[in-house]
Amino acid sequence: MQQQQNPNHQVHPWELVESGFHPEDYGLNATLFSLGNGFIGLRGAFEEGFGPEPFADGCYLNGVFASEPIRYGESAYGYAKNNQRMLTVPNGKSIRLWIDGERFSLAEGELLDFERRLDMAAGILHRKLRWRSPNGKTMELHSRRLVSLTDRHLYLVHYQLTPLDFEGEVRLVSVLDAGLAQAEKSDDPRLASPIDSADIQLQESLADGEQLALVQEVLSSGFSVGSGALHKIEFDGDCAREYSQDVDRVSVEYRLDARRGQAIRLTKYVAHFAEQRAGSIGTTRLRDYLKDCSNKGFEDYAVLQRRELESFWNQADVEVRGNDALQQGMRFNLFHLFQSLGRDGRTNIAAKGLSGDGYEGHYFWDTEIYILPFFLYTQPQLARGLLEYRHSILDAARARARELAVKKGALFPWRTIGGEECSAYYPAGTAQFHINADIAYAVRHYCRASGDTDFLRDKGAEIVIEGARLWLEIGHFNPRRDNRFCISEVTGPDEYTALVDNNFYTNLMARAHLDYACEVHEWLRANAPETAAELAQRIQLDEEEPGAWRRAADAMYLPEDKGLGIHPQDDGFLDKPQWDFAGTPADHYPLLLHYHPLVIYRHQVCKQADVILGLFLQSSEFTLEQKRRDFDFYEPRTTHDSTLSACIHSIIASEVGYPDKALDYFQQVARMDLDNHHNNTQHGIHTACMGGTWLCLAQGFAGMRLHGEELSFNPYVPDGLAGYRFRLQFRGRTLELDVDGEQTSYTLVSGEPITLRHCDEILWLSEPGQSLAIDRAPARELAV
Ligand code: BGC
Fold this sequence. Notes:
Radius of gyration: 27 Å
Bound molecules: beta-D-glucopyranose
Strand order of the largest sheet: 1-2-9-10-11-12-19-16-15-14
Number of strands: 30
CATH architecture of the largest domain: Alpha/alpha barrel
Strand content: 25-35%
Distance between the termini: 27 Å
CATH class of the largest domain: Mainly Alpha
């Protein structure tokens, strides 16, 4: 299936280029050209704005939110009480421009030339244009923007205009604007709700001495948010300044007598700070910080930015040969993941990163299952931060468990920012208890691939053990099923089936979780007895509990249908009628926007990978034949209405010998946002799918699996690609894989000797710099 590529963008290995302005794509491009550094996220809207689209602009701070009560028409005990909504902070990039009395706007006049370019090696967004005003004055504009990867509170705008054929007054008004952009009201559950502006109170403002600042207090969540800007203007001539302060905006106006051919340059340093403590941020802090930053110019920051990205790409780059569009998609996705990732152990990666307020900026299981592996195998210290975040919200998860009558342990929120459960629709939210097992899976994966036992001792063990206690509380040994351990009334990953008994994925992952909890408990007692004793006392862990975990794991019930030779998704799935795909018009997808949930729930139809995700994550427990039968059964029943689906299908297709399908899915995944396949990228990128791009390649095409502490590979190159190359961090080593149609080569770039498995062969790399080349990967045909 050849996907339609966005015709308005050029294919380039390191850049995203829009040549010619496409107003109809303004919102979409504001997402694609967004910049971020894990704390600040800045949409790619123009400095001077364009059009009224409410979702076009925005600046967000990771982890900073407003809280609002969830209003239910009909409520019930234990429903999530509050929503946390990622805050839109003042727009600091705003610049208004008048040339000789005419306001510059792309909605008017004549655009003679336009190019917007995101350079992913440099971390800079460029916009170059030539514009003729309605009165016939022509100017050239080059704006550059970077969100600093080295100073998390800072971003810079460099705005340069040159009059080409006129002399006269130029007015540049630089604004710090707290006017809230209101989200649309919509029935789409994936969008953000409108903000209550009374919740945000202005505490202090400043406009003076080249500086602007606004300090706000978010009453509902207690955040103090400070935003400031410092300016440097470069112009050979007189320049008058005028400052103004309004209720929700401060500005400085520069008036200059412009001359033909003479450039005017404005550098705007913008800073944001936030703390969840009333009154903690003041204008002095902003002022001092910005003053400090202004010792360096834009070019200095550009050098630092490139250096930071060089080190990122050195570890994380994936070369995809033989298809430039896929190469671009891969790099674009990895770049955005890096921009989205909270790096302080207190913040995470939202489903839309920091590129838009879709899903209200919430964090989901997307992190642990889809995104974390990329960081784990390229920058493990960043993966650790994601898990530290889970540790930081354990108290909230314990409190939530009590609300659900779970007496011991913790239940992690399905969606949240600060830790409180925010899912207003529990059948597709809180009921996804599998999140506990997903997080434990990620802890195990992280600890095994990094060898970081300190983390396991200090934080990981508590996450795993507290999470595991849930299963004994919500499951039971069922006498009607031979005393097997059953778990009722849960929702698995597939959100087109809800509140079912014995969801295959949930039971499978719970079993692995319980096994691991036993292992971790023993390990802790043997290796850190004092920590084990302190933890047991603090969480009141009963001596008998680990034995109960073992019994539950050993007796775990997994649905099977002997006749069909497949795993039913849950106890009732096979009794339902099939969805009428032939009678469903193409414009009725995603189904969730066209059918009541009950219509969907009573059919055999999947939104996303569920059983086959389990087969991937617990790969060694199933044979290839089994995986193929399940794939053959579920694939035709799956709409892939979630962007989390296609990557898992690609990986299993690779494994079971469907290389063409694997490539088809990979093509969708790699360019999901670039080509706006789900038609909602204007509300933000899809970070899980971006992480899935890396998974498709490393775990799909290269067939990488981790068994215990051994890495194994089963690489091939699908027709349509010429090869690929990527690096891995593994237990302190750097490895490189290069796969083409002829051979696979493994290099130990640095670190201790290592044993690897290539298909059925054991490889031994004994010193840094050593490479082993193995001839042509076997054809992907499944021998059954
Ligand atoms: C998917 C969930 C996912 C969420 C956020 C939903 O459409 O069904 O699995 O966690 O999006 O990405």
